[in-house]
Every structure is written in structure tokens, then in C-alpha cells.
Amino acid sequence: MNIQTEIKSAVDPTKLEKLAEVAVKVGLQLQSGQDLVITAPIAALPLVRLITRHAYLAGAGLITTFYADEEATLARYAHAPHDSFDRASGWLYEGMAKAYANGAARLAIAGDNPMLLASQDPAKVARANKANSMAYKPALEKISNFDINWNIVSYPNPSWAKVVFPDLPEEDAVRKLADAIFAASRVDVADPVAAWAQHNTNLKKRSSWLNGERFAALHFTGPGTDLTVGLADGHEWHGGASTAKNGVTCNPNIPTEEVFTTPHALKVEGHVSSTKPLSHQGTLIDEIQVRFEGGRIVEAKAAKGEAVLNKVLDTDEGARRLGEVAVVPHSSPISKSGILFYNTLFDENASCHIALGQCYSKCFLDGASLSQEQIAAQGGNSSLIHIDWMIGSDQIDIDGIKPDGMKVPVMRKGEWA
Ligand code: ZN
Ligand code: ZN
């Protein structure tokens, strides 16, 4: 237990408390009497306890937390029977879906070791992920359709910190990751709640401008990239705080620097190169180069992790098409930190990105009232996966293309034009 205490002391308790407060008041906007479901790695216990206290102070009805343990996961890979990897705890996800249907909010704490499964059999990992994605669907749909207010924040788990800073002693690595999380989450200032209000206003300005322009497509150019991303019919840009179908305005991602919308699943043409490595379930996929035809990836290469990339692309029909395009300035605080977090929540907010797979129904005008069929007819993609990867840098230019072909500069050298 000594090590635990030492590591805990590497995390600034005042800032951790502020992160808990921001998660409840900004991230969730938890309502009086509302129930809350929390999922967290066991290492995040100090943050879970602070969030639980702040949530009850904010009037939470009942809080239920589910912990995951990395040792237990590894024991499964070492000793579970073969058919275990085609199974998932469907009953648990059905219960979560029921809780959300009854109005509970959802908080996830991220911070798992991104390399936990790196040396496990990739076929087992893929089977377990697929089984889990399928079982998770009823609960995930409530979240991705934005039925409820939800939030995800991070905790500097020591096993994650050692991946990010492999050359530092564990305690220093945890302290450095903690400080980076606090800075990116804007809790290292006197009044984080006010700082978030200002940040939300700035993001809203960007998304309102893009919504006013009604671009038909975005054209990305840069080294190894000449990509035209057609936008879905009736697409809507979002960024920062947004309002869930239950009427609560929350900040789902902390941190967040992006404005994002839905591409047209059939209208993406050209080639694109990744600008940062993508950490996918324990595998690093680096120097990705893909070519799109009619919205579909027809050629995919990667200097590292190519086999895993191709497995991902074969998940289902929608896995080769885009579900999201996002604009992030190169000067974002996460990008300036220069740290590769091996965690999409952070890395996607360092750079313009695209996501393979499922689209967000909220990224359509009047999205809440559209059926799955209408969303598909307007160009929205569907898939079991949603994987963001980074295509932005200080060498990327973006033009917005109007329906009549007129070009409007959106970004030059990675900054808003
Ligand atoms: Zn994104
Ligand atoms: Zn995404």
C-alpha cells in the first residue's frame, strides 16, 4: 500500500478536487435527483470518491460505480477458455441501458494502460472487442444518440503514465501526466468553471460560422494528403457544450478542442496520411496512408500495425467509411504540450481528425427527430466501430467548398483562416 500512497501524493489534491467539480458541474451538469452510473479503472479510486462526493452535493439521487481491473483482464487472456472471447456481460449493459432509459446520467473515467493487451493474441483481442461492442450496443446507443447527459474525464493511472513517459521513474511519470491532464482539462486556473464557460463560447463561435457557411465539402491538402470530405446532407457542426435529448446542456468530453460534424458516407475522395500514431487496443498504428473512392477506403497501408488496421477495416461494411470529421487548430493546448497521450480523448484534441465508422445523429439539423433510415439517406454512416485518427498538422490547409464549387479558406498552416 506504500506505493499507492506515494503515487497518490504525486497527484496534486487541489487540482484533482477541481477536476471532480468540473466533471460534475461542467461535464455532466448533473441535475438534482438524477441518478449516475460511473465506470472507472480501479486505479482511479481517489477521483471516483471525489466525484461521488461532489455529485451527491449537487443533488445526485443514487450513484452506482463499476470498476475495471487490469490484472483481472490479463488473467482472462491467460486462463479463460477459448469461447470466453466470444462472450460479453450483456446483462450488465442491458442494466445500464435501463438506467439511462430511466434518466440516469453517465460518467466514464478514462486512464487505462493503452498497451495492456499489446502482447496478447490479436485474434482473441478482436473477438473480445467485437463481442463487447455488440453487447454494449443498447447502452452505447443511448449515449451516442445523446439521450442523456454524459461525460468522460481522465485519471493519471500509473500504468498509463509509464507508457506516456517510459524513461521517468513511476512517481515522476504520474506527476507529469497528472499535470498534463489538469492543464488540458482547464482545471489549473483559479476558476475552472468560468474558464469552461469562456472556452464553450469560443467553440460555439467556430461551429456557428461553419453552420452558416453550409459547405458541401472540406478539402484537406498537405504532405501526403489531398482529400475531399463531402459533408452529409443537413449536417450540423458541434463543439464544446451541447444539449442532450433530456434537455441538459453538458460537456461530454473533457478535454475538448474540436468542432466536428458528419461526413457523407458515399462522398469522400482522394488520399490522406496520418500525422500522429493511433493507439488502438494495445497496438500502435503509425504512418497510415489510405485512399478513398466513393466514400470507401479501397487501399490502406501503415508503416506499423498494418495487420491490425486491416482487421479494423474489416469489422463491418461501415468500418471503411467515415463517421466524423473534426477541425482543431494546431495551436491547441494539447498539441502545444507535445505529449503523445496514447489516448484518443487527448490525442484527437491535438489535431484535425477523421473517424472511421459510426456517425453521431446529433450532428444533423434536427437530428433528434431523424430515424436511422433518414440518417442513412442523408449520408450518415453506421458501424460497430468509431475510431478517430489524426490528420492535422501545421502544414495542413483546409478549404470549404460551397455547393456551387466556390472555395472559402477554413485553415491555413493548421490555424483558423
Ligand atoms: Zn472528434
Ligand atoms: Zn470521434
TrEMBL record:
<keyword id="KW-0031">Aminopeptidase</keyword>
<dbReference type="GO" id="GO:0004177">
    <property type="term" value="F:aminopeptidase activity"/>
</dbReference>
<dbReference type="InterPro" id="IPR052170">
    <property type="entry name" value="M29_Exopeptidase"/>
</dbReference>
<keyword id="KW-0482">Metalloprotease</keyword>
<protein>
    <submittedName>
        <fullName>Aminopeptidase</fullName>
        <ecNumber>3.4.11.-</ecNumber>
    </submittedName>
</protein>
<comment type="similarity">
    <text>Belongs to the peptidase M29 family.</text>
</comment>
<dbReference type="InterPro" id="IPR035097">
    <property type="entry name" value="M29_N-terminal"/>
</dbReference>
<keyword id="KW-0378">Hydrolase</keyword>
<keyword id="KW-0645">Protease</keyword>
<keyword id="KW-0479">Metal-binding</keyword>
<dbReference type="InterPro" id="IPR000787">
    <property type="entry name" value="Peptidase_M29"/>
</dbReference>
<dbReference type="Pfam" id="PF02073">
    <property type="entry name" value="Peptidase_M29"/>
</dbReference>
